[in-house]
Each structure stands twice: as structure tokens, then as C-alpha cells.
Amino acid sequence: MKRAPRIGIALGSGSARGWAHIGVLRALAREGIEPTIISGCSIGAFVGAVAAAGDLEKLGTWVESLGWQHVVGLMDMGLRGGLIKGDRLISFFERQFVDRDFTALPHLFGCVATDLHSGHEVWLREGSVSAAVRASIALPGLIAPVWQDGRLLVDGALVNPVPVSLARAMGADLVIAVELNSDVVGWAWRNRPPAGQGTTNGDAHWSRKLLSRFGRNGNGHTSPAEGDEAASADLPSMLSVMQDSISIMSVRIARSRLAGEPADVLISPRLAQLGLMDYHRGAEAIAEGEAAVELALPAIRRALERR
User: Fold this and answer.
1) Pairing, β 174-178 against β 265-267
2) Out of 115, 130, 155, 237, which one is annotated catalytic?
3) Rounded CA gap, 275 and 138, in Å?
């Protein structure tokens, strides 16, 4: 008798857009499609670890209740390695969701980080789940890197934003990939309001919140001289520049990796309207994830039939 295929899912990077992964996993479960192998990168590692532990609905309820005040409360400011230390976020993660060894998870899980010194891709599949997630989400410039086993690790999106290869290495016969940045590059500039009228997402707000801790304004500089105010007002926020730069990098790397290591099905939620730090817009991201699965269902069913 032909055995059922082992379904894997590769959850990609994308910061706050990553809450869409919750919607994707919810919608798949409603269709009776439940991956038993989960690989994740960055925010995909965060959601993937919780899903592998069986706590997805608990995470979804928390995300849907998040306000921006809650998000700010999880940030511990720092000046070495990144604007955010990350300790407070991971401590919360351990208390509420996953604080166990990989071997104790009901489903196979692995996540990706990058060795900052060598540039090598690092697959994390042993030891503390929370420590692995902490390494995978260490977005350069924003969240400080971490030392682990003699290596300084940062966000896996630098090398493998949608880790299909890891899911296959863990034994998946069929891999569904979720890529969060497909429509992001250039979106902010195409939808840019006239100078001086603010931005279309919340990143300027988050820049001001973060940088006010250091006595700086939203553009990442001390207050401009009077003659420079107009020019400064026309510049994007620090986080907008960071977001667009990271998005360009992630999209280019993801396209290259997916071309050489294609998934059986690729799901691409439409998330360009969400900013890098819009974690308080979780309900919107989740809904986009669910909608993307609806569009992809025919392709998923065909892929399952071929197996």
C-alpha cells in the first residue's frame, strides 16, 4: 500500500508580516492538511516552534489581542548589537509558549540562523527551542545577535529566508512554502503620500518610539537645523529604510533559493501594507494568510494527488 506523504511546511521570514503564518496553518488545518514537519526562519521560526508544540491557537489568540503598547512593552532597548536586546521577548516566549528541548516537541521542527563571522547557514535542531528561535529572529540592526556554541548567530533570512531545504532534509515528501515578501519591494514608494503627510504604515511611528529612548528623532539624527527641516521631512523613517532594504535582500535571496530548491506549493500572502514593526496588526495578517491558502488550495490538492 502506498503510504501517505509526509507533509512539511517552510515558514519564511518577514517580521510582523509573519503573523500571517498563523492564518496559513489555521486554514490548512480546516482542510485536514496538517504538516508534521515544520521549518522556519526568523518570525517563521517563532510561529513554527509554537505550532510544533501544539500551541498555535493560544498564539493566535494572543496575537489578535496585541496593541502597540503591548509590543513596546516587550522591547528592551540596547545599544550593542541592535536596538532591542531580545531578552524580554524570549523570556515571555518561554513562559507562555515553548520552553523545552527539540526532542520534546510533538512535531519535527528546525529553524535557520546565520553565522555572522563565516556567513554560513546554520540549521538549529537540537537543545533549547527558545534559544534556537532567539538566534533565528536576530534581525541585524534591530535585535542583538547571540552567541551559541562558539558562533555569533543572527537572522537566518540572510541566507535562507524560506527554508524548503531544511524541511526536505528533515524528511518531508511534500513541502508547502510560505513566502511573506513577494509583493513588498517598491510598494511603499508606489503608495507614498505627498511630502510632509506621513507614511502609509506605522514604521515612522515605531522609529520615533524607539529612537526617542536615545534622544533622537524619527530619521535617526539629532534635530535638524531650521534650514534642513523640509529636506528631513521628505526622507523616510529609519525603520522604513531598514524595512525596504531587508525586503529587497530577502526577496532576492528567496527567489534564488526557491529556484534551486523549489517547494511543491508556494503560498504568498499579500502583506505589503504591513510595516516591519506592525505586530499589533496581527488580525489583518492572519486574515491575509487564510485568504492566501484559499487561493492555493487547488495547487495543494493536485500536489497531494500526485503523491
Assistant:
1) parallel
2) 155
3) 17
Please say if 155 is a catalytic residue.
yes
Q: Would you state the pLDDT for residue 75?
A: 66
Radius of gyration of the chain (CA): 19
Is 91 assigned a catalytic role? no
| pLDDT tens profile 43-80 | 999 999 999 999 999 999 999 988 877 776 666 555 55
Considering the candidates 13, 15, 42, 247, report the single residue annotated as catalytic: 42
- Other C-beta atoms lying within 10 Å of the C-beta of residue 241: 15
DSSP codes joined into one string, the chain: -PPPPPEEEEEPP-GGGGGHHHHHHHHHHHTT---SEEEEETHHHHHHHHHHTT-HHHHHHHHHH--HHHHHHT--B-SSSEEE--HHHHHHHHHHT--SBGGGSSSEEEEEEEETTT--EEEE-SSBHHHHHHHHT--TEEE--EEETTEEEEEGGGT-SS-HHHHHHTT-SEEEEE-S-TTTTTHHHHTPPSTTS--SSTHHHHHHHHHGGGT--TTSSSPPPGGGHHHHHTSPPHHHHHHHHHHHHHHHHHHHHHHHS--SEEE----TTS-TT-GGGHHHHHHHHHHHHHHHHHHHHHHHHH-
Give the span between the Cα atoms of 184 and 61, in whole angstroms.
26
Cell numbers representing residue 5 in the block: 506523504
